[in-house]
Structures are given as C-alpha cells and as structure tokens.
Inverse folding.
C-alpha cells in the first residue's frame, strides 16, 4: 500500500497526532490547517513542511492532495468539517466528541453512510492499556453478566472556559460538562458491548466560576439505562476543585468487579473474581503499555493514541469497520447531549436515539 497522505486541521490539540502519523510507516504528513498562521509556521519547521502544505482556509485544505483528515478543532466545528471531508471521500479521524448537537450527529451519520471513506472517533481512553486488559477479563467471562458501571471525570480547566488573559468566555463556556462524556462512556460501553437507551441527569448550579454559560455548571451526574438492562452513572465537571484530575472507572457483574484507583492516571485499582480471588486484589491501572516499543508513546496519553491510529489505518488498508465507527461514535456522544436536556427539564428521563 502506498503511503496515505494525512492532513490535520486544528493545531493546538491535533498536533499530538502528527507525531503518531509521522512515525507510522503507512502515512506521511501532507497538509496542516489552522485559523492562525503562526502555529502553522512552527509545525512546518518541525515536520519540514513546504508553504503550499499550510492552510488557513478549511475548504482550501479539504481540496488539497490528502487521503486522511484529522480533526483537532473545537467541537462546534466537528459536524460541518466531518461532513465536508466525508463528502470529499477523505477518511476522517475526529477528536471527541462527534458533535455538540443531535442534528450535527445525524448529519455526520448520513455523510458517513454516503461516503466511500472511513470515519472513526478518536476516543483514546478505550485504548488505555488497562482498558484493553479489562476487556480481556470481561470477554473471558470473569465478571459474568454486567449490571452496573460508573465513571467519574473531573478535570479542572477553568482557564479554557474563561480566558484568564482577556477574562472572556472560550467556546467551552457553551459546553455543558456532561456533553463531554465520551472519555467516560466510551470505555464502559466498549467493555460492556452495550449502548444507551434512556438518560436522566442532575446538575445546573454555577457557584465555582461566574455564569458564562452551561460550561460553568459546577458538576453534572447522569444516570443511563442500556439496551441490555444495565445502569451506568457518569459524573462530569470542568471546573470543580480537584488536583490531580480524576478519570476513574468501575464495572460490576454477577461474579466479579473491576475498579480503577482515584490517584491520577497511573494508579492502583482493585479486582475481585468469584471462585478465583479470596478477596480484592490490587491491579495496576496505567494508560501505558510498558512492554511496547518507545515509539508507542509518540502521541501522549500513554500508548493509547499509537494503537488507536493503527486500528484506524488497518480499517482503511483492509476495508474493515473501524473500532469506533460512526455508530459507536454517536453512541458515545449523543447520551451526553440528551442528559443535559434532561437536567434542564428538571431531571426527567428521556429516550436516547438509537442508531443501530
């Protein structure tokens, strides 16, 4: 297979993927796009890119000689950019979440169904090393039928909600905490091989930072019901006081449970398998595969982005379904949108659209 040409839009977040694609023997960096020219100059120096490979206009960028579009732009742009790329038959690897509206999600689904190209949501938490280990336990039946799972994601990013230099709201000021749910729901739904059918949510107070929009909500807690009858709880905050940031998971079945720790991303969790463990056993929960070559760390977030990109490239090379295809991507996005609606409607239960 000839090398696939990769184009990145959105330098700030997306640039971590450049190093992964640059080091992959199946790809080469062919174009970079950003609203500001200055970051493009720095990227060009690092990757030896020519001036004609740098773009500040998205539609000029889409028409360039590229095979893959990596979306690292703010979420409100994802639907428009994804649809444009897919309609140009460019493969899309999109940062989370898929979109910030139901209408945007449905436009992405329609475009993906029409396109010859692949779409994959870059939900890197699924690829954290401990999650891959847990999947083997679940698939081996160690937990039995799963009836409950939970995730807490508390990441204080007040400076990204309100710019401290200008004291003006950022685009995240309009993103409710529970909208950013894929890092929580993604691994749980992946482990459970399930999807959400109903949602409710609580949380609309804004006492930590000033009210600049739903992104200032202190904390939101969603409850979900799944197609298999399990219950999932997700707790989310972008402003709550907690150091270090917390991203933790728990999953409970008839014959066992798995829990990650609450002390940073490298932590000690707990497991118990009935008939195998006499009591809870400490387990290492790490985003990094320490037995893998050092090049797996190129993208950050442990070794997750290396393996994510390889799965995405496999789906293109072998014409297979991406691990987090458009259906699964929406299943990790839409429940957050519906949950926020439920919170604003006095914590009612709402049906979640099913795309299967």
């Amino acid at each position: 297979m000839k090398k696939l040409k990769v184009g990145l839009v959105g330098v700030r977040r997306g640039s971590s993927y450049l190093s992964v694609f640059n080091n992959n023997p199946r790809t080469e960096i062919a174009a970079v796009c950003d609203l500001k020219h200055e970051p493009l100059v720095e990227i060009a120096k690092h990757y030896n890119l020519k001036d004609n490979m740098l773009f500040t206009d998205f539609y000029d960028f889409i028409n360039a000689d590229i095979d893959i579009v990596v979306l690292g732009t703010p979420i409100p742009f994802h639907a428009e950019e994804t649809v444009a790329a897919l309609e140009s038959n460019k493969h899309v690897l999109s940062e989370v979440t898929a979109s910030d509206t139901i209408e945007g999600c449905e436009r992405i689904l329609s475009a993906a169904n029409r396109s010859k190209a692949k779409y994959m949501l870059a939900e890197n938490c699924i690829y954290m090393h401990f999650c891959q280990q847990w999947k083997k336990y679940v698939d081996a039946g160690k937990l039995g039928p799963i009836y409950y799972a939970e995730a807490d994601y508390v990441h204080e990013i007040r400076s990204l909600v309100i710019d401290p230099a200008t004291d003006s709201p950022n685009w995240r000021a309009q993103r409710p905490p529970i909208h950013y749910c894929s890092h929580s729901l993604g691994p749980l739904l992946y482990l459970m091989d399930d999807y959400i059918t109903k949602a409710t949510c609580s949380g609309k107070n804004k006492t930590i930072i000033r009210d600049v929009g739903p992104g200032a909500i202190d904390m939101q807690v969603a409850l979900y019901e799944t197609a298999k009858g399990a219950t999932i709880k997700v707790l989310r905050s972008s402003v709550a006081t907690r150091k270090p940031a917390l991203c933790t998971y728990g999953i409970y079945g008839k014959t066992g449970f798995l829990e990650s720790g609450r002390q940073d991303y490298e932590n000690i969790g707990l497991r118990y398998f009935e008939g195998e463990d006499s009591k809870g056993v400490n387990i290492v929960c790490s985003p990094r595969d320490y037995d893998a070559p050092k090049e797996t760390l190129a993208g950050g977030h442990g070794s997750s982005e290396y393996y994510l990109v390889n799965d995405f490239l496999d789906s293109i090379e072998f014409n297979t379904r991406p691990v987090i295809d458009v259906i699964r991507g929406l299943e990790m996005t839409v429940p957050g949108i519906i949950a926020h609606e439920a919170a604003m409607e006095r914590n009612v239960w709402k049906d979640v659209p099913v795309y299967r």
